Amino acid sequence: MLALSAALDAPESDSPDLVGKVLAGVWEVVRHVAIGSMGHVYEVRHTDGGPARAAAKVLHTELVHNKEVAFRFRREAEILDAIHSPHVPRLFDRGRDEMGRPFFVIEYIAGRELFQVLEEQKTLPLHPALEITRQICQAIGAAHRAGIIHRDLKPENIMIVGSPAAPEVKILDFSVSKMDDIALTQAGTILGTPAYMPPEQALGQEITPKVDVYAVGAMLYDMLCGQAPFDEGEPGRTLGALLTRDAPRPRSLAPDLPEEVEAVILRAIAKDPAKRYASIDALEGEIGLLLGNVSGLRKRSHEVDDEAARPTQVPSPAGATRVAAAPRRRVAVAITSLVLLVAAVVAVAVRLFV
Question: How far apart are the first and last CA of the chain?
């Protein structure tokens, strides 16, 4: 899946070169771990009684003089420092290496991305999926209270520590997050991942905490249904589907899913922000209620399915009753949606290809 931020592509000529060196006089670089869009990630250890294991993120050499990217990199460290949650990595240190590249050091997270888990398992059982969602809500709730909107929540940014059956969640990559005190992008700029962004974000409109509510709902949909609400494999087509179609109802993809869970998901991913949960805390409250009654939800769901599977009794002509006609499907595409789609596709095409 592609983020709509071409400026953050990793330079091919930048290579890891810090193994064996010491950052800020105390962080010994043990090994290279990964390369991301903004920098390299290294495992480091404190040489004087600090954390035995930590991770350092170092900005790519070729991006140091890109003012927007360098600012966003430094801002990510500030954001991590401002959020106080066990589900967000702790910030230990920040500075510049001997080449002048900014870096910051956070706790080392040994786990797997939710994306990797879903690649292997396709879907998760109800209880683990709800528990992962609850912890994501807790982390994002702490971020929102600090005036921070993540705006790029997706399975690749969710780290699962331990087994999915008993998960501990860590939220990663706040590099495109929005803070209340500063606008990091110009009006109309689209940042995020199409499969998990709401319509207002796709159209470059005002970003509010409700974009994170939508993304959390979309990830719960993905965990339980085996796919995101909208994912056409290519950003432009995904945006078109998002703006012109309704997502398939979760129970049409996962028939055993309890109706109460489906209702929570559909409210979280409502296209109209006013119809979503008022806050991430409100969504967390609903998830908590579902978690407290998982066994009851499953039982009622099976009872409903069993009832639906029973043969239909054909009444005698004398006692026959009229059966209400099935409601018509609503028309999925409106004229206004088409107008919005054209505007969105043109804006995206300009930013992606010009």
Answer: 20
Tokens linked to 308: 């639906």
Of 152, 212, 222, 231, the catalytic one is 152
Residue 225 to residue 219: CA distance in whole angstroms: 10
Q: For 155, left (φ over 0), alpha (ψ -120 to 50), or beta?
A: alpha
Against a cut of 0.85, is the pTM above it? no
From 234, 235, 267, select the one nearest 250 (Cα to Cα). Answer: 267
- Tens digits of per-residue pLDDT, 23-76? 999 999 999 999 888 899 999 999 998 888 999 999 999 999 999 889 989 999
**3-state secondary structure at position 225:** helix
Give start and end residues of each alpha helix (H) in the chain.
Answer: 67-82, 114-121, 126-145, 199-202, 210-225, 235-244, 250-253, 259-268, 280-291, 294-309, 335-353
Domains in the chain with CATH codes: 17-107 (3.30.200.20), 112-300+333-353 (1.10.510.10)
* 48 counts as catalytic: no
DSSP 259-287: HHHHHHHHHHT-SSGGGS-SSHHHHHHHH
Report mean pLDDT in 10-residue bins for the chain, 354 residues: 36 71 95 90 93 93 91 91 95 94 94 94 96 98 96 95 90 80 46 87 92 98 96 88 94 96 98 97 97 76 50 40 30 33 42 39
Q: Are 236 and 204 in contact (CB under 8 A)?
A: no
> Using CA atoms, how far apart are residues 54 and 56, in angstroms rounded to an integer?
7
